[in-house]
Recover the amino acids of this structure.
C-alpha cells in the first residue's frame, strides 16, 4: 500500500462492497460465504472457432446478479475490488489466470464509457493483471460501432447486431500470446465470439474467455 492509499484508507475505510460493513478485503465473511455457496469456478470447452475455453465464476443469479447490476449500472465502480478479492482467493483460478501472457478487457464504446465513467471489464482486468503479473493490453481491442443494447435482443439479433463492432490495433502486441479476454457476463456468447474473432487476426497462440458470470 502506498502513502496515498494509506491516507485514503483513513478517510474512506474499506467496506464490504455488498453489505457496507467495514472490511479491509472489501468483502465481509458473511457475504463471502454466500458467494462461496454460489461459486462454480467452471471451465467449459468452447464451441466457437475463435476461442478454446470459457472460464467463469458464477451462474448469473442470486447475490452475484445484484452485485454485477450494481457494478454496471448503479455507479458502484468500487465493486470490482470485492469481485477480484473473491476470485483471487481461489487457488485453482489464480494459478490458471497466471498462466496467460495477456489479459484483454472487452471494450465498451466511447459514449458508454463517458456515461458510466468507467469500463467495468477494464477495472477487473487491470486488477487481475496487477495481482497475477500478466500483461494488460487495453489499446488493442476497440468497440467502434454504436450498437443497440445486446440485452434487449435475442440470440440471432445479437449476433447480427455485434458484427463489425470491434476494431483491432497494435496487433503485434498479441502475436503468439496466450490471451484471456475478460467480460462481465456471458449470455449467448456473441460478444465474446466477435471479440475473439477480431483478436484471431493478431495470430495469437491461444484465446480463452473469462467472465464473472454466465447467464
Ligand atoms: Zn458483506
Amino acid at each position: 500500500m502506498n502513502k496515498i492509499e494509506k491516507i485514503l484508507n483513513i478517510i474512506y475505510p474499506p467496506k464490504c462492497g455488498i453489505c457496507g460493513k467495514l472490511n479491509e478485503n472489501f468483502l465481509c465473511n458473511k457475504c463471502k460465504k454466500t458467494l462461496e455457496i454460489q461459486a462454480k469456478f467452471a471451465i467449459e470447452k468452447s464451441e466457437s472457432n475463435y476461442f478454446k475455453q470459457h472460464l467463469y465464476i458464477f451462474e448469473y443469479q442470486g447475490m452475484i446478479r445484484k452485485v454485477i447490476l450494481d457494478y454496471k449500472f448503479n455507479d458502484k465502480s468500487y465493486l470490482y475490488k470485492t469481485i477480484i478479492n473473491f476470485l483471487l482467493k481461489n487457488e485453482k483460478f489464480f494459478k490458471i489466470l497466471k498462466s496467460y501472457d495477456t489479459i484483454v478487457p472487452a471494450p465498451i464504446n466511447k459514449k458508454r464509457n463517458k456515461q458510466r465513467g468507467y469500463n467495468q471489464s477494464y477495472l477487473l482486468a487491470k486488477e487481475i493483471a496487477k495481482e497475477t503479473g500478466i500483461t494488460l493490453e487495453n489499446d488493442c481491442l476497440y468497440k467502434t460501432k454504436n450498437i443497440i443494447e445486446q440485452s434487449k435482443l435475442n440470440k440471432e439479433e445479437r449476433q447480427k447486431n455485434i458484427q463489425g463492432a470491434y476494431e483491432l490495433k497494435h496487433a503485434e502486441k498479441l502475436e503468439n500470446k496466450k490471451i484471456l479476454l475478460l467480460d462481465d457476463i456471458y449470455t449467448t456468447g456473441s460478444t465474446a465470439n466477435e471479440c475473439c474473432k477480431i483478436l484471431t487476426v493478431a495470430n495469437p497462440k491461444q484465446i480463452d474467455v473469462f467472465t464473472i458470470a454466465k447467464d
About this structure: The domain at 39-214 is CATH 3.40.50 (Rossmann fold). The chain has nine helices and eight strands.
